[in-house]
Amino acid sequence: MTRARKLSMAGIAVGALALTVSTSIPLAYGHGYTTSPISRAKNCANGTVQNCGPIQWEPQSTEGPKGFPAAGPPDGKLCSAGLSQFAQLDDQRGGAWPATQLTAGASYTFRWHLTAAHATTDFKYYITKQGWNQNAPLTRSALELTPFLTVPYNGARPAADVAHPGTLPNRTGRHMILAVWTIADTGNAFYQCSDVRF
After folding, report:
1. Full domain range(s) for residue 180
2. What is the pTM of this model?
3. Chitin-binding type-4 domain spans which residues (predicted)?
């Protein structure tokens, strides 16, 4: 085989490998995660929580169908946005996830870091009901389905770091906050679960 032919074959092999890699890995150019209260995804990315699977490299990628609560990811898979590769986020781990300490009824600023801006419908924040089952994966029946904070964007693109001042609900004990960032020009939204304690 001539040197030119060997190089040509090598080039074809590299191209085929690149195509295989690019089509077998989900798009991870990413989107966003909550930093305050810190989300499960970000705790994994920081290394605060171990054995998280692929979410540790792409905490911004919990993207699923929009329309929550009428549509969106299925019950029990809300924290992973219904993505099997991020299923570790749905595991309650017996209450071992780190929880952000909050004060019921207090003013609080919710924060996101966005790795890619999208035209945005809104950001909504939901919280678990008092007495919810802390040992089961998060479901709609465990949540108050009326958000306690809604921040409309009307199609605008938010900055890389966004802050949403609001008032925390009245709760006691351990809870979860589900933050949903709904994109205006796609069929998707981003879902972030944060463990909190009042």
Report:
1. 28-197
2. 0.85
3. 31-196
